[in-house]
Amino acid sequence: MQNKILVTVARQYGSGGREIGNRVAELLGIPLYDREIITGAAAAADLHPEVAEREDEKAASSLLYTLAMGAHFHIPTAAAATHLPINDRLFMHQSDYIHDRAAEGSGVFIGRCADYVLREEPTRLSVFIFAPTEARCERVMLRHPELTRTAALDLITKTDRRRASYYNFYTGGKWGKYENYHLLLDSHVLGIEEAAATIAEAARRHAAR
């Protein structure tokens, strides 16, 4: 029986990480979990999808709460969970959703600290996608033609800062630090197709060990 193939994709904003993850899933013929993680968590937490979307990949905003929790998030008892901020409830339910899908079989998971959530899975391949700032700016402006270069750069900075804060808070690690990942790929050098093919082949080999 073939081992499960589990790929987690963390990405800088504008690096094409979502497109690469989608292509990896196509090449491997396995499910992609991206927005599905949000909607699944929203349903489990009894939250409106728009609320979950707004709070996606955001750490708890209360400074006092953050200080009280310590360096990173500790999963509380089910009884206490109902009193947590929305962000923390979403993280818990997103983590459950990721665990459940991984238990069912193979999959590609985009963001949401999936590399940390699935850290005990032996066949997990964790990837970080990055690219030069200028290349990311061009990609963002193509996706959002209404943005000026200054606005695109501002969006990149704010989104990456938010993702880093989310990851660092809930995992106690450091977003983008090479020790957290098996592969770090520059999408500007490789392009979407080559990056996806590289990840797919590495995932196959890793799962086969």
Task: Describe the 3D structure.
By secondary structure, the chain is α/β, with parallel strands linked by helices. The chain has a single domain, classed as P-loop containing nucleotide triphosphate hydrolases (Rossmann fold), CATH 3.40.50.300. Helices cover 57% and strands 11% of the residues. It has ten helices and five strands; from the N terminus they run E-H-E-H-H-H-H-H-E-H-E-H-H-E-H. It has helices at 17-28, 35-44, 49-55, 63-69, 78-81, 86-104, 114-117, 133-143, 149-171, 187-208; strands at residues 6-11, 32-33, 107-110, 124-130, 183-186. A five-stranded parallel sheet has the order 2-3-1-4-5, sandwiched between helices. 39% of the residues are buried.
Compact summary:
This protein has a five-stranded parallel beta sheet with strand order 2-3-1-4-5, with helices on both faces.
- Count of alpha/pi helices: 10
Strand order of the largest sheet: 2-3-1-4-5
Shape: globular
How much of the residues is beta strand, in percent? 5-15%
